[in-house]
Amino acid sequence: MNYGYFDDVEKEYVITTPKTPLPWINYLGCENFFSLISNTGGGYSFYKDAKLLRLTRYRYNNTPLDNNGRYYYIKENDTIWNPGWQPTQTELDSYSCHHGLGYTKMSGQKNNLDASVTAFVPIGDNCEINKVTLKNNGTESKTFSLFSYVEFCLWNAVDDMTNFQRNYSTGEVEVEDSCIYHKTEYRERRNHYAVYSVNAPVTGFDTDRESFLGTYGSPAKPEAIINGSSKDSIASGWSPIGSFHVSITLEPGEEKTYIFLLGYIENKEEEKWESFGVINKKPARELLSKYQTVSQVDDALAALRTHWDRLLSRFTVETADEKLCRMVNIWNQYQCMVTFNMSRSASYYESGTGRGMGFRDSCQDLLGFVHLIPESARQRILDIAATQFENGSAYHQYQPLTKKGNADIGSGFNDDPLWLIAGTAAYIKETGDYGILDESVAFDNDLSKAESLLEHLRRSFKFTTTNRGPHNLPLIGRADWNDCLNLNCFSKVPDESFQTSGPSEGPVAESLFIAGMYVKYGNDFNAILNHLGHIDEANTVNANVAAMYDSVLKSGWDGEWFLRAYDAASEKVGSNECEEGKIFIEPQGFCVMAGIGVKEGLAAKALVSVEKYLDTQYGIVLLQPTYSKYYLNLGEISTYPPGYKENGGIFCHNNPWISIAETVLGHGNRAFDVYKKTCPAYLEDISDIHRTEPYVYSQMIAGIDAPHHGEAKNSWLTGTAAWTFTNVSQHILGIRPDFAGLMIDPCIPSTTKKLKITRVFRNAQYNIIIKNPNGVEKGISALSVDGKLIDGNIIPFVEGQKSYDVVAFMGN
Asked: Which of 83, 265, 370, 691 is the most buried (most CB within 10 A)?
């Protein structure tokens, strides 16, 4: 069943009913100010950090679903309704929601009155703009009231939800004309405030929640709206809100537009106050002056659309498959941008109060984002590296505002260090900027311990090299990519013969996944060192990578697939010898991506096993058979019910690893089949089963052992976005940045006969045509650049050249 449709021309997903299976959301903002907005107006706003600088409240895990947002109520006689349906849920005569790139427009009609709300965050300013347009489509004059409503958060979202004994006494506002200033905690603790305004005279206002809703009222039935008038309340403690009442009369065919703005203002320290507790309103007035007219707002929206058109033009594909085109050209790249900005911090599944930015997560997000705004990717790498410890390990998460490591989570995830090499290599391949390696970066944000970024990469590689277990495989630590595979929760103590090869004195569980990473990204590190002329060091790295390759073949092969790990008692995990959890997806993908077992014929066997044992109609599950009971030696992975999350769920994040692995072997048909199974555009017709948004990826889909097989969760903020774009752009379409230039290496379905691709790479535009007349799946028989045949499939980068015309013929 469909709940809307794609509009590829406008780059929108149009939702045609407010009653979607779950709230379907969008993200506003791409710099410092961000908002989440659902198809019915739910969501919240924050500046930089969803935990520490939250502007508005949102209630997770609550009923009714999607509780709190930016709401507009229309009261006409006894009828009260919202253009976005929520929260009154009054039945509308018509409804639509257009989720676009950085903006959302909701429209509703009731009794011949049309109302629309266009919401966006403008480029260059820290505010959310809501353009509310009302039109009388009837034949008689209409007089009615428009009420707005937002509920302010008291900045720190965790404290706001827990410290009621204090917070009920701190709420403070100020009202001036058509502006409400939320200045709670401005007196001494903060250097910022929020402003909420409308560009018209108002009939009334409210800033106290209880006055507006009623003591036992709710946003569905606010007392002030039922009574038809605001109370002009001034919040003193308790729960401050922002609400304006505008009285409107429209003649037949007449239309009026109002601009509502929610902004964040941060004063310079010397401008903090005019006098004690009195805010400096000058910067707020300057902000508001830029968005007082419809033309100003329309210009800002046009600038936002131009911004996105420019970004997305950096990679486009033309082919007969419209679903592939809309995902590659629009939605996948858009999601990569959003996920890069948010990491895993703020979605409808992450409250924004805990995780912050992930070390591993952010490094992976770079893979799908680096081509869009390379300079932002560069800064992110330096920020990530600064959370690393001197021994090469790292904080697993950090807060985006402070950029300091999250001590509550700490470190110990032993895959983290290698992801820094992965992200940095991706950046250098994209830009050719080896100068980033000379940047001085602190360890643990201590500038007295700063070293070059190259030294950080050395420490990353050395950490894995010197922390190996009894099979000469990398120690897993608390966990690797699979956070729930906690193999050092052993039920029996290893005997005294188990010795590690490095300085670690901790438990000795080992990870085949990290081994695959070590080989793959060790080869990238080796290439970087060779380019820099560190030949001896490069040779040492190469020798270590080769030794790890051999260790995987010797101790990591199970006969039909790669083992997942060895637990702390040196017993196999992910082996045919296991009662449950015989085969895992992760090593089959990453070991083959690293080239392990390809020439020996083992890689092909592993991928056959994936298709035989793990594949389903909705994607490849993480493991089989699922765990039916708790295993102390495995940890959290066995606490989930069968078919969910790490216990046999379909992790969309690692399905691309299998697709990429298939391209390594030249299997274009199979690679594309894997790609399509989790790709949202191909799942639109099963939205009643899938439930999450049909325009973005989800982290997880319920596996075949789950009661609701095919149901997705955790949409938007997932490494799936970056990995899928990496897969489809670099490995299926085959336009892959390399240290030496741009590689053309497609691995496509045999039915695809022609592709036209535009790729901006190192400030030059590559116009690429790929022809496949004989229907092969992989291989370039001839490659011409600007009309001249070249050897190989890497287009050498020429400094200063701004365009390349490329024609590639596929063949064996």
From this structure: 83
Domain termination site, one of 674, 693, 712: 693
Place of tokens 């198809």: 39
- Helix residue ranges, H only, 558-702: 585-593, 602-613, 655-664, 668-678, 687-690
The answer to whether residues 549 and 562 touch, using CB atoms and an 8 Å cutoff, is no
Q: What is the pLDDT of residues 230-260, one digit of tens each?
A: 999 999 999 999 999 999 999 999 999 999 9
Residue type at 497 in one-letter notation:
S
Distance between CA atoms of residues 219 and 231, nearest Å: 16
Radius of gyration of the chain (CA): 28
Asked if 744 and 795 count as a contact pair (C-beta separation under 8 A), the reply is: yes
Q: Give SS3 for 539.
A: helix
Taking the alpha carbons at both ends of the chain, their separation in whole angstroms is 43
**Cis preceding-peptide flag for 219 (omega within 30 of 0):** no
C-alpha distances in Å from residue 320, one per residue of 301, 752, 755, 756: 31, 8, 9, 10
Q: Establish if 5 belongs to a structural domain.
A: no
Residue 2's contacts (CB-CB under 8 Å, 6 or more residues apart) are: 684, 685, 687
Please report where in the chains the tokens 């336009």 appear, as a residue.
735
Q: Where are the beta strands (DSSP E) in 440-540?
A: 440-443, 446-452, 510-511
Bridge partners, 279 (sequence order): 273
Question: Do 609 and 601 meet the contact criterion of CB atoms below 8 Å apart?
Answer: no
**290 and 326 part of one domain:** no
* Same-domain pairing of 270 and 371: no
Q: What is the CATH number of the domain that holds 266?
A: 2.70.98.40
* Residue 176 DSSP code: E
Instruction: Return left, alpha or beta for 779; rule: phi > 0 is left, psi -120 to 50 is alpha, else beta.
Output: left
Q: Are 136 and 142 in contact, with CB atoms under 8 Å apart?
A: yes
114: its two tokens: 């049309």
Amino acid at 12: E
- Contact (CB, 8 A) for 487 and 634: yes
pLDDT in tens, 302-320: 999 999 999 999 999 999 9
User: Which CATH number is 411's domain given?
Assistant: 1.50.10.10
Catalytic pick among 299, 444, 483, 738: 483
Domain count, the chain: 3
**Could you tell me if residue 719 is inside a domain?**
no
- Considering the domain architecture, whether residues 670 and 739 belong to the same structural domain is answered as no
Contact 476, 573 (CB under 8 A): no
What would the pLDDT profile of 544-559 be if each residue is shown by its tens digit?
999 999 999 999 999 9
If asked whether residues 195 and 273 sit together in one domain, one would say: yes
Are 480 and 578 found together in one domain?
A: yes
Give me the sign of the Cα torsion angle 359, 361, 363, 366: negative
pLDDT in tens, 330-382: 999 999 999 999 999 999 999 989 878 999 999 999 999 999 999 999 999 99
698 in any annotated domain: no
Give the domain extent around 136.
45-61+72-84+122-309
- The first and second tokens of residue 511, run together, are 């990870």
Whether 738 sits among the annotated catalytic residues: the reply is no
Give the separation between CA 29 and CA 124, rounded to whole angstroms. Answer: 10
In a domain, 149, yes or no: yes
- 209 and 357 share a domain? no
Q: In residues, how long is the chain?
A: 812
Bridge partner list, 805: 767
Give the residue carrying structure tokens 């929206």. Answer: 301
Q: Are 444 and 402 in contact (CB under 8 A)?
A: no
Query: What is d(CA 452, CA 394) in angstroms, rounded to the nearest whole number?
Result: 16
> To which residue do tokens 């299997």 refer?
667
Which helix (H) or strand (E) segment holds residue 262: the answer is strand 255-266
* Mean pLDDT for the chain overall: 95
Q: Is 195 left (phi over 0), alpha (psi -120 to 50) or beta?
A: beta
pTM of the shown model: 0.96
DSSP 8-class letter at 19: -
Q: How many CB atoms are closer than 10 A to CB 255? A: 12
